[in-house]
Every structure is written in structure tokens, then in C-alpha cells.
Write a structure and sequence with these properties.
binds glycine; 2 domains; Dehydroquinate synthase-like, alpha domain; globular; seven-stranded mixed sheet
């Protein structure tokens, strides 16, 4: 088993190993002695695959387990579902000594985490991510949120989990598309600041998933510890995301998050080379890497459309936007840019 310790406002461990789900009850009991009540929050897809095994493991360890199941997908990540989770917690009479377990991908983790942050002004929660993307990104770092009709993640809180359990066996049931989505986030860490990870990814990720996932989590941990509330270094995690979010939105979310981030990263690398900010070897290296992991590289939208969405993003600060640009293989930097220059910058990455 690999373990990554996170020393954030709440310290916790991220454990990575095949078969962890069956031992989840024992792992949680080591931190929170039973008897206690646990509400498992999960979507209908993951419920059918893994919630019975988790319930059995929790009950074997002496916990009382109940379940809240919602319809899968981003379209459930709203105040209505959150209200149902709050009501379920209250109906089951959970107290501040009890726990929420988020079993699922990013939508589940974000929403269950926000329910934990707010119910009784905060109860503990455990993340058991079931997608690669959630393992290497959203389950670690304490960003919790729901969407509003005008935009994603507009209401939320920084609220760290008490434990994260990544069972690599769960990756076996991901569709190739969802798996590739997670690979985009894995690859991203290499280009942010981890040339060793880029080397590991030259052979196949599938040969050493525990080592690669642990390395990505350690990379994220370093940025979260340096800047938990996302005012500086943590923003490096947005490599490919400013253009990527715009690509997702322009496609009416037909293009998945990971695919959009892949396209967005390459766009930024090409633009950075054109602007003299990056060594010329990066775009070809990145394009080959993305293709090797079955990710798209061509942007179907123009710079004006992308800039219009990017400039409406919540992360914009006044008249500037903080982009993340690659400088050389395995190194990126924050690059503040005037709003008026964003379209031209994107255009440089498209030509
Ligand atoms: N997903 C980016 C972050 O946690 O900051």
C-alpha cells in the first residue's frame, strides 16, 4: 500500500492499494472507533457496483450504515440534491460524532463533501473515489461544491476529508472514455512540475497504477499544503483548465472534462511557444503523450468563443486572468494576463 500524508488545516492520509474497499470499515474504524452511524453518499451507477461491498465492510467493523443514492451525472450536483442529503442525514439522526462516506467520482465527492461541511456546521467525511480523475484530483485537497444554473462549483467550501481510500481495483469498471478523462489529469501533473512522472508515463500507466496515482496525489498535496485556499501556487493545477472549461462550455458539455483539459493544455503549450515563454519541444512531446493515452488534441472552437467563456469565469480577478503556461518539459508557471489579451493568446495556440 502507498500512503500520502496531507498536512492541510485538517491533516489526513490518502491510502492507495488494490482491494481497499473491502477493508474500508477497518481503515475508518482505526480513526473513528465504532459504534457510529455512517451515511454513504453515492450515485445509482456506483451504488449498483460497489455500495453493497462498502456497507458489508462498514457493518463488519461495527458501524451502522445507511445510504443516499442520487441519479448519476453533473446534472444532479445542485441545491435540490444537497437538500435531500441534508434531510437524509437529519432523518437518520446523524450527529457530529457520525460520518459521511463519499463513494464515487467528482460529483459525488464534491457534493457529499459540501454536505459534510454544512450539516450541523461540519461533520467528518471520508472520500472513496471510484474514478481515476477523482483519485488523482477531486478527492484530495478539500474543494467541495455544488453547481448553480449559471455555472459550475459556484457555491462551496474548503473542507478537508478525514481519510481518502483509493482502491485501484475500482478502475476496472470505468469506460474507456472515463478512464481517458482521468489520464488527462494524470498527465497534467507531469507538465506542471514533475518531469519524473512524465518519464513514468512513457511506459504504460496501467503497469504501475499505484505508483503513478500516489505520485500525482503527492504532487497535488505539495501544492495544497503550500496554498490550501487557492490564492497562488495551487492555481498551477489549472494547467489546461482555463481553455478546457471554455471548450467544455462551448460544446454544451458534449466534450468531457478530461478531453477538454487535454485540448486546453496543448493549446496553452503552443501559445506559450509562439509567445517565447516555452521551449519549442513541449507541444510535440505533449501531443504524443495525449495521443498515447487516447486523448483528443484538436480544438473545434475559435479563440473569440473560448475567450468569451474564459473571461466570464469565477476565477477571473478584475481586469486580469491568471493563466498557467508551460515553460519547459516538467515545468509550468502562473502567467497573469490582461483580459483584453486573452483572445489573442488563445489564437496563438490555435494556429
Ligand atoms: N482541482 C483543482 C484543485 O483542487 O485545486
Amino acid at each position: 500500500m502507498k500512503t500520502v500524508s496531507v498536512r492541510a488545516s485538517r491533516p489526513y492520509e490518502v491510502k492507495i492499494e488494490a482491494g481497499l474497499l473491502a477493508r474500508a470499515g477497518a481503515e475508518i474504524a482505526a480513526l473513528y472507533a465504532p459504534p457510529r452511524s455512517v451515511l454513504i453518499v453515492t450515485d445509482d451507477t456506483v451504488n449498483a457496483l460497489y455500495a453493497d461491498a462498502l456497507t458489508a465492510s462498514l457493518e463488519k467493523a461495527g458501524f451502522g450504515a445507511s445510504r443516499f443514492v442520487f441519479a448519476h451525472g453533473e446534472c444532479s450536483k445542485h441545491i435540490g440534491t444537497l437538500g435531500e442529503i441534508w434531510n437524509t442525514l437529519a432523518e437518520h439522526k446523524l450527529t457530529r460524532s457520525d460520518l459521511i462516506v463519499a463513494l464515487g467520482g467528482g460529483v459525488t465527492g464534491d457534493m457529499a463533501g459540501f454536505a459534510a461541511a454544512t450539516f450541523l456546521r461540519g461533520i467528518a467525511y471520508i472520500q472513496i473515489p471510484t474514478t481515476l480523475l477523482a483519485m488523482v484530483d477531486s478527492s484530495v485537497g478539500g474543494k467541495t461544491a455544488i453547481d448553480l444554473s449559471v455555472g459550475k462549483n459556484l457555491v462551496g467550501a474548503f473542507y478537508q476529508p478525514s481519510l481518502v481510500l483509493c482502491d485501484t481495483d475500482l478502475l476496472a469498471t470505468l469506460s474507456p472514455e472515463i478512464y481517458a478523462d482521468g489520464c488527462a489529469e494524470v498527465i497534467k501533473y507531469g507538465y506542471i512540475n514533475d518531469p519524473t512522472l512524465l518519464g513514468m508515463l512513457e511506459t504504460s500507466f496501467a503497469d504501475a497504477p499505484e505508483a503513478v496515482i500516489a505520485r500525482c496525489i503527492a504532487d497535488k498535496r505539495d501544492l495544497v499544503e503550500a496554498d490550501e485556499h487557492d490564492n497562488g501556487a495551487r492555481q498551477l493545477l489549472n494547467l489546461g483548465h482555463t481553455a478546457g472549461h471554455a471548450i467544455e462550455a462551448c460544446s454544451n458539455f458534449e466534450i468531457s472534462h478530461g478531453s477538454a483539459v487535454a485540448i486546453g493544455m496543448l493549446l496553452m503549450a503552443r501559445a506559450a511557444v509562439k509567445k517565447g515563454l516555452c521551449t519549442p519541444d513541449v507541444p510535440a512531446h505533449m501531443e504524443a503523450m495525449l495521443r498515447a493515452y487516447h486523448l483528443p488534441t484538436d480544438c473545434p472552437f475559435g479563440a473569440a468563443d473560448l475567450a468569451a467563456v474564459a473571461l466570464s469565469d469565477k476565477k477571473r480577478k478584475g481586469a486580469t486572468l491568471s493563466l498557467v503556461v508551460p515553460q519547459k518539459l516538467g515545468q509550468s508557471v502562473l502567467y497573469p494576463i490582461a483580459a483584453a489579451e486573452v483572445e489573442e493568446f488563445f489564437a496563438a495556440g490555435l494556429n
